[in-house]
Specification:
It holds the Pfam family NmrA. InterPro entries: NAD(P)-bd_dom_sf, NmrA-like, NmrA-like_oxidored. Belongs to the NmrA-type oxidoreductase family. Helices cover 44% and strands 19% of the residues. The protein has 283 residues and is an alpha/beta fold. Strands 3-2-1-4-5-6-11 form a 7-stranded parallel beta sheet, with helices on both faces. Strands 7-10-12 form a 3-stranded mixed beta sheet.
Protein backbone atom coordinates (compact mmCIF):
# COMPACT_ATOMS: atom_id res chain seq x y z
CA UNK A 1 0.00 0.00 0.00
CA UNK A 2 1.34 3.38 -1.04
CA UNK A 3 0.33 6.59 0.69
CA UNK A 4 0.10 9.56 -1.67
CA UNK A 5 0.16 13.15 -0.46
CA UNK A 6 -1.20 15.91 -2.69
CA UNK A 7 -3.55 13.45 -4.37
CA UNK A 8 -6.04 16.16 -5.26
CA UNK A 9 -3.31 18.29 -6.86
CA UNK A 10 -1.74 18.02 -10.29
CA UNK A 11 1.39 16.11 -9.34
CA UNK A 12 0.08 13.91 -6.53
CA UNK A 13 -3.06 13.21 -8.53
CA UNK A 14 -1.02 12.01 -11.50
CA UNK A 15 0.98 9.72 -9.21
CA UNK A 16 -2.14 8.29 -7.58
CA UNK A 17 -3.83 7.63 -10.93
CA UNK A 18 -0.78 5.89 -12.40
CA UNK A 19 -0.31 3.72 -9.33
CA UNK A 20 -3.99 2.72 -9.46
CA UNK A 21 -3.69 1.98 -13.19
CA UNK A 22 -0.86 -0.43 -12.36
CA UNK A 23 -2.97 -2.20 -9.79
CA UNK A 24 -1.40 -0.70 -6.69
CA UNK A 25 -3.28 -0.13 -3.44
CA UNK A 26 -3.33 3.63 -2.90
CA UNK A 27 -4.23 5.58 0.21
CA UNK A 28 -4.64 9.27 -0.57
CA UNK A 29 -4.20 11.77 2.25
CA UNK A 30 -6.71 14.59 1.77
CA UNK A 31 -7.87 17.52 3.84
CA UNK A 32 -11.47 17.26 2.63
CA UNK A 33 -12.74 13.79 1.60
CA UNK A 34 -15.88 15.42 0.17
CA UNK A 35 -14.05 17.64 -2.30
CA UNK A 36 -14.53 16.92 -6.00
CA UNK A 37 -10.91 15.88 -6.39
CA UNK A 38 -11.08 13.52 -3.44
CA UNK A 39 -14.30 11.93 -4.66
CA UNK A 40 -12.73 11.40 -8.10
CA UNK A 41 -9.79 9.60 -6.48
CA UNK A 42 -12.14 7.41 -4.48
CA UNK A 43 -14.10 6.58 -7.63
CA UNK A 44 -10.83 5.53 -9.28
CA UNK A 45 -10.18 3.10 -6.44
CA UNK A 46 -8.12 5.01 -3.89
CA UNK A 47 -8.72 4.76 -0.17
CA UNK A 48 -9.19 8.23 1.31
CA UNK A 49 -7.88 9.23 4.70
CA UNK A 50 -8.30 12.68 6.19
CA UNK A 51 -4.94 14.06 7.19
CA UNK A 52 -3.08 17.25 7.95
CA UNK A 53 0.62 17.67 7.25
CA UNK A 54 0.78 20.04 10.21
CA UNK A 55 -0.52 17.35 12.61
CA UNK A 56 1.91 14.58 13.54
CA UNK A 57 -0.83 12.34 14.98
CA UNK A 58 -2.85 12.43 11.76
CA UNK A 59 0.30 11.69 9.76
CA UNK A 60 1.07 8.68 11.94
CA UNK A 61 -2.47 7.40 11.43
CA UNK A 62 -2.30 7.95 7.66
CA UNK A 63 1.00 6.08 7.36
CA UNK A 64 0.03 3.10 9.52
CA UNK A 65 0.82 -0.05 7.57
CA UNK A 66 2.29 1.83 4.59
CA UNK A 67 4.85 0.18 2.32
CA UNK A 68 5.63 3.33 0.37
CA UNK A 69 5.01 7.08 0.44
CA UNK A 70 4.84 9.69 -2.30
CA UNK A 71 5.46 13.07 -0.72
CA UNK A 72 4.87 16.44 -2.37
CA UNK A 73 4.05 19.83 -0.87
CA UNK A 74 3.24 23.27 -2.24
CA UNK A 75 4.93 26.59 -1.61
CA UNK A 76 1.68 28.35 -2.52
CA UNK A 77 0.06 27.79 0.89
CA UNK A 78 -0.51 30.49 3.52
CA UNK A 79 3.04 30.21 4.91
CA UNK A 80 4.77 30.01 1.54
CA UNK A 81 8.06 28.15 1.37
CA UNK A 82 8.37 28.05 5.16
CA UNK A 83 5.14 26.05 5.33
CA UNK A 84 6.32 23.81 2.51
CA UNK A 85 9.55 23.03 4.37
CA UNK A 86 7.75 22.40 7.63
CA UNK A 87 5.25 20.03 6.03
CA UNK A 88 7.85 18.24 3.90
CA UNK A 89 9.99 17.54 6.93
CA UNK A 90 6.94 16.43 8.96
CA UNK A 91 5.94 13.86 6.32
CA UNK A 92 9.51 12.54 6.14
CA UNK A 93 9.65 12.30 9.94
CA UNK A 94 6.36 10.39 10.00
CA UNK A 95 7.60 8.00 7.31
CA UNK A 96 10.73 7.39 9.38
CA UNK A 97 8.66 6.65 12.47
CA UNK A 98 6.46 4.28 10.44
CA UNK A 99 9.42 2.36 9.03
CA UNK A 100 8.33 2.99 5.43
CA UNK A 101 10.16 0.78 2.94
CA UNK A 102 10.36 3.30 0.07
CA UNK A 103 9.91 7.07 0.22
CA UNK A 104 9.58 8.96 -3.06
CA UNK A 105 9.82 12.75 -2.87
CA UNK A 106 8.61 15.13 -5.57
CA UNK A 107 11.24 17.88 -5.65
CA UNK A 108 12.30 20.14 -8.55
CA UNK A 109 15.16 20.27 -11.02
CA UNK A 110 17.94 22.45 -9.64
CA UNK A 111 17.00 21.95 -5.99
CA UNK A 112 20.55 20.82 -5.27
CA UNK A 113 22.34 23.58 -7.22
CA UNK A 114 21.98 26.78 -5.16
CA UNK A 115 19.73 28.40 -7.75
CA UNK A 116 18.60 31.22 -5.48
CA UNK A 117 14.98 30.45 -6.44
CA UNK A 118 13.10 30.27 -3.15
CA UNK A 119 10.79 27.38 -4.04
CA UNK A 120 13.77 25.43 -5.40
CA UNK A 121 15.82 26.07 -2.27
CA UNK A 122 12.94 24.95 -0.04
CA UNK A 123 12.80 21.60 -1.77
CA UNK A 124 16.56 21.27 -1.47
CA UNK A 125 16.23 21.71 2.29
CA UNK A 126 13.60 18.97 2.43
CA UNK A 127 15.84 16.70 0.33
CA UNK A 128 18.67 17.16 2.81
CA UNK A 129 16.34 16.37 5.71
CA UNK A 130 15.23 13.14 4.03
CA UNK A 131 18.87 12.15 3.51
CA UNK A 132 19.76 12.97 7.13
CA UNK A 133 16.98 10.69 8.35
CA UNK A 134 18.45 7.81 6.36
CA UNK A 135 15.13 7.07 4.67
CA UNK A 136 15.23 4.57 1.77
CA UNK A 137 14.32 7.29 -0.70
CA UNK A 138 14.10 8.28 -4.33
CA UNK A 139 14.07 11.97 -5.23
CA UNK A 140 12.37 12.98 -8.47
CA UNK A 141 13.29 16.43 -9.76
CA UNK A 142 10.75 17.51 -12.39
CA UNK A 143 11.44 20.39 -14.75
CA UNK A 144 8.84 23.03 -15.67
CA UNK A 145 5.28 21.72 -15.89
CA UNK A 146 3.77 21.78 -19.38
CA UNK A 147 0.48 22.67 -17.72
CA UNK A 148 1.95 26.09 -16.87
CA UNK A 149 1.29 27.01 -20.51
CA UNK A 150 -2.41 27.11 -19.67
CA UNK A 151 -1.57 30.43 -18.03
CA UNK A 152 1.48 31.65 -19.95
CA UNK A 153 0.67 30.46 -23.46
CA UNK A 154 0.19 32.78 -26.45
CA UNK A 155 -2.12 35.76 -26.07
CA UNK A 156 -3.76 37.74 -28.82
CA UNK A 157 -2.23 41.21 -29.15
CA UNK A 158 -3.59 43.58 -31.79
CA UNK A 159 -5.00 40.63 -33.68
CA UNK A 160 -1.89 38.43 -33.73
CA UNK A 161 -0.86 35.61 -31.44
CA UNK A 162 2.18 36.45 -29.31
CA UNK A 163 4.10 34.15 -26.97
CA UNK A 164 5.90 36.35 -24.44
CA UNK A 165 8.39 34.66 -22.13
CA UNK A 166 11.37 35.92 -20.14
CA UNK A 167 13.66 33.59 -22.07
CA UNK A 168 16.51 34.55 -24.34
CA UNK A 169 15.82 33.25 -27.88
CA UNK A 170 18.56 30.63 -27.60
CA UNK A 171 17.63 29.34 -24.14
CA UNK A 172 16.43 25.73 -24.18
CA UNK A 173 13.81 25.13 -21.49
CA UNK A 174 13.14 21.58 -20.34
CA UNK A 175 9.56 20.70 -19.37
CA UNK A 176 7.41 17.76 -18.33
CA UNK A 177 3.76 16.73 -18.14
CA UNK A 178 2.49 15.92 -14.66
CA UNK A 179 1.17 12.61 -16.01
CA UNK A 180 4.76 11.63 -16.78
CA UNK A 181 5.80 12.47 -13.22
CA UNK A 182 3.26 9.83 -12.25
CA UNK A 183 4.93 7.36 -14.61
CA UNK A 184 8.38 7.93 -13.12
CA UNK A 185 7.06 7.72 -9.56
CA UNK A 186 5.29 4.44 -10.30
CA UNK A 187 8.48 3.14 -11.93
CA UNK A 188 10.37 3.98 -8.75
CA UNK A 189 7.95 1.98 -6.62
CA UNK A 190 7.96 -0.91 -9.11
CA UNK A 191 11.76 -1.03 -9.24
CA UNK A 192 12.78 -0.05 -5.72
CA UNK A 193 16.17 -1.79 -5.88
CA UNK A 194 17.11 0.30 -8.92
CA UNK A 195 15.69 3.62 -7.75
CA UNK A 196 16.32 3.72 -3.99
CA UNK A 197 19.07 6.18 -3.16
CA UNK A 198 18.79 7.91 -6.55
CA UNK A 199 18.04 11.52 -7.47
CA UNK A 200 16.59 11.80 -10.96
CA UNK A 201 15.92 15.01 -12.87
CA UNK A 202 13.05 14.35 -15.29
CA UNK A 203 11.75 16.04 -18.44
CA UNK A 204 9.74 15.10 -21.51
CA UNK A 205 10.65 17.90 -23.91
CA UNK A 206 13.16 20.72 -24.40
CA UNK A 207 12.59 23.70 -26.67
CA UNK A 208 13.63 27.30 -27.19
CA UNK A 209 11.05 30.09 -27.11
CA UNK A 210 10.91 30.37 -30.94
CA UNK A 211 10.44 26.59 -31.18
CA UNK A 212 7.59 26.77 -28.66
CA UNK A 213 5.97 29.49 -30.77
CA UNK A 214 6.16 27.19 -33.79
CA UNK A 215 4.39 24.44 -31.84
CA UNK A 216 1.56 26.79 -30.90
CA UNK A 217 1.40 28.12 -34.48
CA UNK A 218 0.86 24.63 -35.88
CA UNK A 219 -1.96 24.05 -33.41
CA UNK A 220 -3.53 27.46 -34.07
CA UNK A 221 -3.19 27.29 -37.84
CA UNK A 222 -1.75 30.80 -37.85
CA UNK A 223 1.58 32.44 -36.99
CA UNK A 224 2.67 32.92 -33.39
CA UNK A 225 5.34 35.52 -32.74
CA UNK A 226 7.82 34.91 -29.93
CA UNK A 227 8.76 37.91 -27.79
CA UNK A 228 11.77 37.60 -25.51
CA UNK A 229 11.06 39.62 -22.38
CA UNK A 230 13.96 40.54 -20.08
CA UNK A 231 13.81 38.49 -16.89
CA UNK A 232 14.19 41.74 -14.95
CA UNK A 233 10.85 42.87 -16.37
CA UNK A 234 9.18 40.22 -14.20
CA UNK A 235 10.46 41.77 -11.00
CA UNK A 236 7.49 44.10 -10.62
CA UNK A 237 5.21 41.07 -10.77
CA UNK A 238 7.35 38.60 -8.81
CA UNK A 239 10.89 38.81 -7.50
CA UNK A 240 11.04 35.04 -7.45
CA UNK A 241 9.85 34.70 -11.06
CA UNK A 242 12.55 37.13 -12.18
CA UNK A 243 15.23 35.10 -10.37
CA UNK A 244 13.87 31.82 -11.76
CA UNK A 245 13.79 32.93 -15.40
CA UNK A 246 17.23 34.47 -14.98
CA UNK A 247 18.39 31.07 -13.74
CA UNK A 248 16.74 29.40 -16.74
CA UNK A 249 18.76 31.66 -19.03
CA UNK A 250 22.06 31.36 -17.19
CA UNK A 251 21.97 27.73 -16.02
CA UNK A 252 18.75 25.80 -16.59
CA UNK A 253 17.61 22.26 -16.02
CA UNK A 254 19.93 19.33 -16.75
CA UNK A 255 17.69 16.28 -17.22
CA UNK A 256 19.27 13.67 -19.51
CA UNK A 257 16.44 13.83 -22.02
CA UNK A 258 17.90 11.34 -24.56
CA UNK A 259 18.29 8.70 -21.83
CA UNK A 260 14.81 9.41 -20.47
CA UNK A 261 13.29 9.13 -23.93
CA UNK A 262 15.19 5.92 -24.60
CA UNK A 263 13.53 4.28 -21.60
CA UNK A 264 10.18 6.09 -22.06
CA UNK A 265 9.53 6.73 -25.78
CA UNK A 266 6.02 8.02 -25.10
CA UNK A 267 6.98 10.98 -22.93
CA UNK A 268 4.53 13.81 -23.51
CA UNK A 269 5.90 16.63 -25.66
CA UNK A 270 4.74 20.23 -25.83
CA UNK A 271 3.27 19.41 -29.25
CA UNK A 272 1.08 16.70 -27.78
CA UNK A 273 0.14 18.74 -24.70
CA UNK A 274 -0.92 21.68 -26.87
CA UNK A 275 -2.96 19.45 -29.18
CA UNK A 276 -4.81 17.97 -26.21
CA UNK A 277 -5.14 20.97 -23.90
CA UNK A 278 -4.84 24.32 -25.68
CA UNK A 279 -7.13 26.36 -27.89
CA UNK A 280 -6.03 29.57 -29.56
CA UNK A 281 -7.68 32.71 -28.15
CA UNK A 282 -10.53 33.92 -30.31
CA UNK A 283 -9.86 36.72 -32.77
Amino acid sequence: MIVVFGGTGRQGGAVARELLRRGRTVRAVVRDPQSAGARALAAAGAELVKGDMEDAASLDAALAGAHGVYSVQTFEGPDGSAGEIRQGKAVADAAHRAGVTHFVYGSVGGAERSSGVEHFESKGEIERHIAALGLPATVLRPTMFLSNFAGIGPARVDGELVLTLALEPGTVLQMIATDDIGVFAADAFDNAAEFTGKQLEIAGDALTGPQMAEVFARAAGEPVRFVSQPAEALRAFSEEAAIMFGWFNDHGYIADLPALRASHPDLITLERWVAENWTAPAK
